[in-house]
Amino acid sequence: MKSFTASIEIIGINPFVFIPEKILKSIFLKAQKQKGPIPIIGLINKVPFKQTLVFYSGHWRLYINTTMLKNSPKRIGEQIKVSVDFDPEDRTIPLHPELKKAFRKNTDAKKIFEKLSPSRQKEINRYITNLKSEESIKRNVEKAIRHLTGKERFVGRE
């Protein structure tokens, strides 16, 4: 794991730090790629996290959310100690069983889902997978199906 000190910056509403070039090159080498999201693990002020490095607006950025660093949006300009490394662990989330069942009943929605970008598919599936109650899962699976068939918004999307 490579360590560095960085100042928290913000773009839009998103706090982030830049990763030093030498450390980025090490991560690229381990990831065997320099494009697309790159999964990483690390520490912020000695607290472990999992995150994804993303290239946005000409720079690789490590976005700092509030689970990684409490009150991160209010800590712009603060110096933090960061350690990072490539995370080779598979982060695939299997399709939620209720969503899978709904796709068996509605093949049109399934076809539309399969045409979505992988990141959008993951967003919908992760949202449903992270719900706690059976009732909210059922309600949101139904909502996702209506969204995919053009009848309703879902997870803040048109």
Question: What's the story with the biggest beta sheet?
Answer: 7 strands, antiparallel
Intertermini distance? 41 Å
Figure out the total of helices.
5
**Structural classification:** alpha+beta
Give the class-level CATH name of the largest domain: Mainly Beta
Rounded to the nearest angstrom, the radius of gyration is 18 Å
Low-confidence stretches: none
Number of strands: 7
**SSE pattern, N- to C-terminal:** EEEHEEEEHHHH
Protein model, in words:
The chain is built from 5 helices and 7 strands, in the order βββαββββαααα. The chain is α+β, with helices and mostly antiparallel strands and 158 residues long. It folds into 2 domains: 2-86, Elongation Factor Tu (Ef-tu), domain 3, CATH 2.40.30.100; 97-148, no CATH class. Strands 1-7-4-5-6-3-2 form a 7-stranded antiparallel sheet. The longest helix is centred in the C-terminal third of the chain and has 15 residues, at 134-148. The model has no long low-confidence stretch (mean pLDDT 92).
Compact overview of the structure:
This protein is of the alpha+beta class and 158 residues long.
List keywords for this structure.
seven-stranded antiparallel beta sheet, alpha+beta, 5 helices, elongated, Elongation Factor Tu (Ef-tu), domain 3
Question: How is this fold's topology laid out?
Answer:
Elements: E1 2-7, E2 9-11, E3 14-18, H1 21-31, E4 38-44, E5 47-56, E6 59-63, E7 79-86, H2 97-105, H3 107-115, H4 118-129, H5 134-148
